[in-house]
Every structure is written in structure tokens, then in C-alpha cells.
Amino acid sequence: MTGYSDSTIWLIIVAVGLGTYGLRWSFLGIFGSRPMPIWAQRMLRYTAVGVLPAIVAPLVVWPAATHGEPDPARMIAAVAAVAVGVLTRNVLAAILAGMTVLYTALYFMA
Amino acid sequence: MSAQAELAASPNLSPEQSRALQRSPAQCVRHGFLQALPFILVLMPFGMLFGVVASEAGLDLAQTVGFTVLVLAGASQFTAVQLLTDHAPVLVIIVSAIAVNLRMAMYSASLVPWLGAARPRDRAWIAYALIDQSYALSIQHYEKHPRLSIDQRVGYFLGSVLATCPVWVVAMLLGFWLGKSIPEDWALDFAMPITFLALISPMLRTPAHVAAALVAVVGSLIFAFLPSGLGLFVAAPLAMITGAVVEALMERRNGARL
Fold first, then answer.
1. pTM of the prediction?
2. Which of B27, B148, B187, B220 could bond to B152 as cystine, CB 3.0-4.6 Å?
3. What is the extent of the structural domain holding B42?
């Protein structure tokens, strides 16, 4: 039991679904192939490098799995993933390096 | 010789770049699919956890599936279910769960130069399947291979979606039915940070990209005290502005030297 009626829950689901779709469709749907202002294009080139590290950094420094306690194994693994990614420019190699270092470090630090 | 084949033969391309240009759209789908497979490591544990949390919160199977299929955004789904358990007002739940997805509008905008020329029908499903993983993987592919045709870009995006979105749904069902998530000591919580870092680091090829990433990291740590992930919406725009400013400065300096 959630304390909400079934129809309320469905209302929430549909509203969040529509709102989220609206955000995703927004620029891609409206602008299409019309050019965007130069300054906007310039900023948007840095969306991925601006958003993803900002999502990840707090998770690296204060991991949820350790209840926010900084964890050396996870930090070393993050550094390894970045280093291999920068050096090889290969996403898969960086993932493998990060996970390998994580498991090795967790094993030795346990 | 087709336009793409002609481009592929141009001498200033790396072998990898000319290979990418020669792929048919169907081969692009396969390529995107294969490159997105590592994300299963991320999506399985989070998807299963959502199934568990949703069933514990008292949602039935149809509602849990509804959330996953209609919203298709992990952080937002978790926020909504958490607030349901806290008995928050309906409007608060709706607004908070949508606000978590504001970054999707930034993704949408940054894809315009790459996918804006796609047919409206294609843009409609691309918008539906625009998740962190499909976005990040595709944008780094487009930046690495700027001369891909629109069909090749759409194909690659489709491949990355096919490898990720169905997994999210299946994982959610497994979690819901088994009532179990993947054990914590597998440390799969950290697969998400690692895959995101792995996607970002090959993109750090200009001083502007490096500066933007640094500001994103520092900003997100400084503003981590803000509630419900709002720090991201301070840090990310700051980082994007930094990237744009550094780019403009570098251009001016290079222009002065010429």
C-alpha cells in the first residue's frame, strides 16, 4: 500500500512521463535543422563534459555504497578510468581499466 | 562513388575515421549496439534496484512497468518512488521527478547540430530514448567522426538504444519478481561513475574541454550541499560557460598569431 489511490499513481506516472518527454524532445524537436545562435552552439559543445563529470564527482568522493565515507579503492579506480581514457581514447579500455583497478583495490584493502 | 565513400578516401582521416564513414546505416546500428554493451553493467543493478524499491513501496507490476517504460529515466523514477514512500503531495512528486530530468533538455539542445536534420519521426523516438548512456556514447562518437551522414548518426544512436533501454526494463522486472537486487559487495554501484568517466575522458582533447570538465567537478563538489541534486544545475551551466569562454579565448589567440 502506498497511501495513494491507483489513479493518483497513474496520474503521477503519466505526468512525469510527459514532462520528461517534453524536456527530451524540446530543442531537438523544435529547432530541427534550423541553426542555433553561435554563442549557444559554443556552450552546447561542452554539455557532455559539463554534465557528466558533475554527476559523477560527488559519487566518486562520497560513494553511496560506503554511506558517503570517502573510499580510496573507488577513487583510485576513477583515476585509472580517466587516465586510460585520456591516453587510449578508447571507452571500453577505460571501463575495463576502471573496473579491474576497483576490484583489485577492494580485494587488497578489504 | 558515393559522397560518403569519397569522404572516406580523403587522406587526412585516420583509418578508424574512414572505416566509420564507410559503414552502412545497418552496420552503424550494430556498431552502436556493440559499443553500448558495457552499459549493461550499469543498467542491470540500477534497474533491478528500481524493481525492488518500487515493489517495496507498494506499487503493482503495471505501475512499476509504467514508470519504467513511460519515464525511462532512473534518477527520476527513484525520486518519484522515494517521495511516494514519504507521502509527499502529488504536485511536489511530479515537479521534483521532472526537475531531475532537466539535464535532458541540455542533451536535447546539444544534439541539435548532429541530429537536427533527422526526420521528425526519427527525432520523436530519439527524444524518447535519450538517456544518459545513449546520449554520452553517441555524442562522443559524433565528435570523433564529425563527417558521418545523418543516417549513420541515427543508426548509431538506434544501436546504442537497443543495447540499453530494453535491459533497463528487463532488469526492473527481475528486481520486481525476485525482490532482490545485485549484492552490494559486487560494487556495481561504481559501474555508473566509471562508465561516465570512461566516456568523458576521450573527449578531453582541447583546453576548453579540460577546463569545462574541471569546473564541473569542482562546482559539483562545492554545491553538493544543495538539496535534491540541484548542485548539478549550478555546476553544469558554469562548466559549459567556461568551455565556451576558453574556446573563444583560444580562437582569438590563434587568430592573433596568424
1. 0.90
2. B148
3. 13-184
Q: Chain A interface, mutation test: which of B114, B200, B233, most A Cβ atoms within 10 Å? A: B200
pLDDT digits (tens, 9 = 90+) for A53-99: 999 999 999 998 888 899 999 999 999 999 999 999 988 899 999 99
Tell me, yes or no, whether A27 and A50 share the same domain: no
Q: Do the domain assignments include residue B68? A: yes
Same domain (yes/no): B113, B240: no
State ipTM: 0.90
C-alpha cell at A80: 585509472
Is residue B251 in some structural domain? yes
The total of structural domains in chain B comes to 2
Q: Does B68 touch chain A (CB under 8 A)?
A: no
pLDDT at B1 (0 to 100): 45
Contact between A95 and B38 using a beta-carbon 8 Å cutoff:
yes
The count of residues in chain A is 110
Are the beta carbons of A77 and B117 separated by less than 8 Å? no
Number of H helices, E strands in chain B: 14, 0
B26 lies in the same domain as B147: yes
| CA distances for A110 relative to A48, A63, A64, A96, A102, angstroms | 34, 16, 18, 21, 12
Number of separate domains in chain A = 2
In a domain, B1, yes or no: no
Tell me the residue range of the domain where A80 lies. 46-110
- Phi, psi of B128, deg, nearest 5: -60, -40
Q: What are B52-88's pLDDT values in tens digits?
A: 999 999 999 999 999 999 999 998 999 999 999 999 9
A to B CB pairs, distance under 8 Å: 303
